[in-house]
Design goal:
This protein has a three-stranded parallel beta sheet. Strands 2-4 form a two-stranded parallel ribbon. Helix 2 packs parallel to helix 3 and helix 3 packs across helix 4. It has 101 residues and is α/β, with parallel strands linked by helices.
Amino acid sequence: MEVNLFKIVNLDTLRHRDTAKKVVDIFSGLPMEEEVVIDFSGVVFASRSFCHELIRGLEGRMVVFRNMSPEVDEMMQLARVKPKIGPRNSFTYKKLELVAG
């Protein structure tokens, strides 16, 4: 199944997780093995939170993204990266007075 994001949401800027959830819901009734094609024609920007929610919602599906602007592609790449943060005790904490002074 192929969808054009701009035609679905009627926005050229995709900012919210709720918007991504609406897109993901379109595919919820499809079998997991059916290929999903998402066309970004007309979309000039997508936030990291939108991209993250879209990727998370489509996990396990065969997905093809088409016609992404360089900005959208960059955000999609950032959304795919999992932050590597160690255990809480590995951070160094300083009193605010010491940092500001």
